[in-house]
Every structure is written in C-alpha cells, then in structure tokens.
Amino acid sequence: MKYLAHFGVWGYVVLLLVPVYYLVISAFKSNTAILNSPFNPFSGLVLSNFGTAMSDAGLGPALVNQAYLTVGASVLTLVLAVPAAFALARSNGRTAALIERTFALGFLVPGFAALVPTVLLAIWMGLFHTREFMIIFLPAGALPLSVILLTQAMRTVPKELEESAVLDGAGSLRLMRSVYFPLVMPTLIVVAVLNFLGFWNEYFFSLVIIGPDKALRTAQVALPTLSMAQSAHYGVLAAGIVVTLIPVYVLYTFFANKMEGAVLAGALKG
Q1: Beta bridge partner(s), residue 29
Q2: At what angle do helices 185-200 and 59-89 cross, to 10 degrees?
C-alpha cells in the first residue's frame, strides 16, 4: 500500500506538470516545432514570441490594470473582512449567528446571476466601464469565504489573552490589532492569497464591466484578443499565457510555506 500510495502521488504530480511543461516550452517554439515535436525543448526555438505577445495584445498596460484591480480589491476585502470576523468571533448571540449564516449564503449565489443587477448598479453609480467599480464589486464575492475562515481562526484565540489585554486597558481596536491580528496571520495570508488568485484570474465581469477599451482592460481580457489576432500562432499565445502566470507563480512560491503552515496548524487544532 505504501508503494501504491507513492505511485499515485507521483502519477498525480506528473499529470499536473506535463501541461505546464508543454505550455512553457511552447512559448519558446515555432508553430512547426509545436506540431511536429511538441515535447522536445530544443526543437524550433524562437525568442520573439514574448515580444510579439506583449505588443499585439498590449499585455504591458493590461498587466498594470490587472495588478491595480487585483491589489485594490484584495486590500478592500481584508479591510472589510477582518473587522467583521473580529466582531463575529467575539459574539455569541443569535444575531451574530444569523449574520454568520447570512455570509455563508453567499456561497449559494452563482456569479452569473448577479450580472444584470451589477451592470445596472455600475451605470447608476456612473462607474460603468471603469476599473474602480470592479475594485468595489469583487470583494462582495470574496467576503463570504474570507469572513468565515477568519472568524473560525479568531475563535481559536485563547480568551485569557483577550482578558489580559482588556485588564491592561486595551480597547477593541487595540485588541484586534495587537492580539487577534498577529495570531491569525497564517489564516490571513491564506485568505489574501486565495483572493488574489481569484481576482487575478477573473474574466467575465471584467469583460462586461470594464469593456473593450484597450487602456483599461485587464490581462485576462487581453489574452483572448491575442488568440484572435494570432489564431494560428500557438507559440505567441502560449507566451502570453506564461506572462500572465508569472505574477501568480511568484506570489504562491513566496507564501507557499506560510499557507502550508496555516493548513497544518488548523489540522492540529482540529
């Protein structure tokens, strides 16, 4: 069973790595090499694919827009989720339980169901075809998971620490900042990374709300235009995809250990 388990794990790793390997090497190859020798990394090397992808799809400004939208929405989500979770974690009444269940109902609402009301709201606010509305809107979909995860993490903070801080004269804001915030930092990092990944890969609402303006569109919206402009040039398309994946990979690599530590800490507490 041990060898079978190892075989299953390594087989799963190979299944994950093969598409990534194919995508990366295709970004450096010509069309002919991709079709004739798809897995040979030394066949038909072309270094201009990335430059072509950046110029044809305008990925430079699109990546800046994507970063602006993603970072802004991620920060706003945490600004809203942390105080909400702090209040729910310290409350034991029926009202707090009802509010927590209301947040959980957010999982039941499919994203496309909110499209028409969202467009109407953006028009009413005068923010249709703007990035700022997306920064305001995206946290609405991320708050349910963020609040629930942070609430559960804050409930594991020992009451003795809170009582000691209160005896020392700490108010609610100081209590949240100096006691709860450091202790739930691993969970906070997990929430921030998950939100970042979700916001970075968001396509549908960005396409509809921000619109086709090349100066405002995000990288995820710009990539399909690359496939239309270079429909037969698979290497250029692969290069564009790799460029958009690099920031996500760097972020996950930087926080991978902390995310794993948060998961293991939660398992041990459970």
Answers
A1: 45
A2: 140
